[in-house]
Every structure is written in C-alpha cells, then in structure tokens.
Amino acid sequence: MEPTDWLLTVSERGNPATRLDRRRSDGTAWSVGNEVRPLVHGATYFAELLAAIRALHPGDLLLFTDWRGDRDERLAGPGTEVGDVLRKAAERGVVVKGLVWHSHLDSLQFSEEENRHLGKEVRAGGGEYLLDMRVRPGGSHHQKLVVLRHMGRPELDVAYVGGIDLSHNRNDDIDHGGDERSQPIAAAYGPRPPWHDVQLAIRGPAVGDLETVFRERWQDPAPLTRSPLSRLREWLHKEDTHADPLPRRLPDPAPCGPHSVQVLRTYPNRLLRGYDFAPDGERSIARAYLKALRRARALIYLEDQYLWSPAVVEHFARALRDSPGLRLIAVIPSVPEQDGRLTLPMNLIGRITALETLRKAAGGRVAVYGVENHAGTPVYVHAKVCVIDDVWAAVGSDNVNLRSWTHDSELSCAVVDETVDAREPHDPGGLGDGARRYARDLRLLLAREHLDREAPADHQASDELCDPEDAFEAFAAAAAALDSWHEGGRTGPRPPGRLRAYRAPRLSRWERMLAMPLYRVIVDPDGRPLRLRRRNSF
C-alpha cells in the first residue's frame, strides 16, 4: 500500500494558497511519525486537557478555536471552570490566543452571549480572544482545536482536535449520565442529556500542521465581521477586533510514533472576499472521504451527529453499489437535537431522504442505530468518526452533510497507521492494504462500548469484532435483543448492549413539501462555487 492510495496529494487538496502543503520539503500533504490517541467522551478529554494546561510554563503557547465556549463549564469538578483555567494560564505568563465563532443571537438558540462571556474571562488574565464572524451568511466556525506548545520542551507538545467543544453538555463519560452543566436539547434526552463524543490527542510533527491551521485563520487580514451592528457592539463591549502578532513559531515536534496524519478542512467559497489562505474555499474533508470511499470494500463504520444530505450520502451509496461485499454501520442520534413543530421536520427530512438513498443502494447491508444508556434514556451522538476497512480513520468536527462538507469551517484528521494489525482478518478490504492497528482499535473501542463488551486482556487475542461481517451481525443481534426487551415491557434482565435499531418518524406528504425547502436553505446550505454545484462536484 502506498500512502497516496488513501491520503490526498497536494493537488487533490485543491487549495494552492494554503501553507499546509508547503511545509515539507518532500512535497507530501501529510506528516509521518505521529502518535494519535482517541479520547472517547468529554470527561476523558477534559481531564487530560486540564492537566496539560496546568503544566504549561510562562512563555508556552495555548491556541484554541471553538464553535461555542461556556466559561462555567467544568473540566473536572469545582474549581476547574473553563474560563477560570484559561484566565489563570494567561495570568502566569502562558500566551493564550482564542478564535471562537461570533455566533448568532441567543434568542435563536445560539451562543453569542456565552462566547462573549468566555472572552471577557480570557482577556481579564491577559490573553487575547477574537469573536470571528468571517463566514458565509448563515454559516459558522465549527472547528474544535487546542494546540499546546512548550518552550524548550517539544516532547510535551500536543494538539487536540475532534468534535468536543469547551461547552455545556460535553462533560459526560462511558456511563452516559450527562453533564452537570447541561443545556436543554430535545425533550427525549431529559434535563441532563447523555452525550457521546470523540476527540483526538496528537503528538509529533502533525502538531505543527494544526498550529498552521490556527495561524492561517489568526493572520487572515479580513475584518472579523462585516456587520456594522456587530462592530458597534464590539466597540461598546471593548472587545478585541484586531489580532496581535503571534509569537515566532517553534520547530515541529520530533517524530514519535507510527501514524501518518493528514489535516483536512472545510472553508466555504466566501462571498465578495474569500480567505487569503483559501480564496476559493477548501473542501479537502469532502475530497478525502470521496477518495477513501472509492477504496472501500468491506466495512464503513460511521458515528455521526446528522448523516443527511442526499448529495453527500449518494457517494456512500455509490460505494455500496460498486462493492457487493461492502457493509455500512452508522451510529446516530435517535432523535434530532431540536424537536419543535417546525424544526423537527426540517431536521428529519434530510436524514429520511439520505437513509432511503442508502437502503435503495444496498438494502440489508446498511444498518443504522441509535444509542441509549442503561436507564433507557437516548444518548445524543455528537461524535464525527469514520473508519473504512480498518485502514483509514477520520475524526473531526465535520458531520456527514452538505453544510460540513462545503459551508462551515471544519477541521478533521485522517490517520493511516504504518503498523499492520496481526489479528484476523489481515486484509478485510482484499486490496492488499492490510488492516491497520490504529483504525481497527478505534472501531473496536467504540463498538465494545455500544455492545457492553470488555476488551480481551491480550491485545493481540482474536476478537470476532475484527471481522467486518461478524461485527455487522453482532450489532444487529444486540439491537434486536434490546428492542425486543423494550417491546416486551422491559421484563426480565436487561440484555447487554446500548444499541437500538433506528426508526425514523414518518413525515406526511405536506410535511415533506414544507420541510425540504427550509432544510436546503437553513439546515443544510451549500457553500460551493456555482460551477461545482452545477455538476455536484467538490
């Protein structure tokens, strides 16, 4: 297997303006020699992040981007509120720089005030915090990134990237009892919504690539907002409106592991004036998925907050049609986040249409599940994970929809491990690539949680879940048993596992007719240049 079989080349990224692909003398669009660890659940990520921030010394660098930040969200109990932790880091001389989406009004169920309050806390300690509205109309900055660099201690450098915001609801663990700092979502999830999510901890040269992502946005000369009202509000609140220079960048950390990491992004084709580092936008997340899907032969494993957009899902359907042995497992929320009389059909119509497309392409080779905790409360799946044939694995902020692939800023990392996994089957895809340890371990880690299974004491011991067909059947059997237990009145011992077969509510013909136009304009807009839209290309 050549890395270019799975990873994008520089030309395939399609963004010659970015500095990302000019950083290496060999011209590759990815870094090698990294160590990547998945941190499943906000509690796991937050505890590690807290320790890492508290270990920073004066002169060290803390960079972060986010969609939403709540200053009172606790990383690990009382006294560990996000705002307090960041403020204290800045007070002791750490260089703290934050880029957070400006957001829309709280009255529209967004987070403008929360993001502003976190900024006040950071600035109170001497840090710098910008509210960034350089997006398309109706768009957002959705990247979730923390980069920690250490003066004279590069072996400690680390970057965290994935789906977990520094905000309410995220601090949940494997038991899925929810976050004590909860934000209401759909009523089905209760007052303390259980939350499933994934973040990556990355060490090695890829830290330099992820720092470049931050630097490109920070150094973009475009104003933070074009709105006169927003500019007036920033002036009244005495907010930062211009980015101060960043410290000189340190050399990339030395290689420390077997993982090749490709940094992938979405930036929209911004109207009037684009980003100086992506004048036509960037759709490398979409392009990376399309390349990996063309190589899929055995199993696509997805965990996704949305899984909608017929234009996006058609590429998964094509892969299923082209490979008769290919299966797809998807783990998604049982109920959309918003359940209002208007918002529920708007959120459901894209998913219903997408699932119809997948099932028409592959029938019983497509299996879609929701998750519940042991009390029977649905778990909100916020993770954004894709593993293909136990070789290519991507984790990021992006969902499987048109908004994430074209319209909002997103950040993901695709990982290919140099280490071939010794467990059978050695080559599930049948292309001679060989299953890779990182991708397989990530899939098994997530599968075992949903199935309530323990990992073998011997990491190299055989496990039926390694085989794509056996894993597919194990998910189906667990969901069928739990569904039957619920349908039978929940009598007798509860079967192991947390999976429920996903059954989308039915929408009437009129609901479909009303919801689809709103879905296309509001829920899932298209951020591509017109020439690409016309031929549904990315």
Write up what this structure looks like.
The two termini are 26 Å apart. This protein has helices at 10-13, 42-54, 82-91, 112-124, 206-218, 228-236, 284-294, 310-322, 343-362, 402-407, 437-451, 468-487, 509-523, 530-534, and strands at residues 31-40, 61-66, 95-101, 128-132, 145-149, 158-162, 195-196, 198-203, 259-267, 282-283, 299-303, 327-331, 366-371, 380-381, 385-388, 392-396, 410-417, 499-501. The protein is an alpha+beta fold and 538 residues long. The longest helix is centred in the middle third of the chain and has 20 residues, at 343-362. The chain has 14 helices and 18 strands. The strands form 2 sheets. It has a 16-stranded mixed beta sheet that branches.
Write the layout of secondary structure elements.
Elements (H helix, E strand, L loop, with lengths): L9 H4 L17 E10 L1 H13 L6 E6 L15 H10 L3 E7 L10 H13 L3 E5 L12 E5 L8 E5 L32 E2 L1 E6 L2 H13 L9 H9 L22 E9 L14 E2 H11 L4 E5 L6 H13 L4 E5 L11 H20 L3 E6 L8 E2 L3 E4 L3 E5 L5 H6 L2 E8 L19 H15 L16 H20 L11 E3 L7 H15 L6 H5 L4
Helix pairs in contact: 3-4, 8-9, 9-13
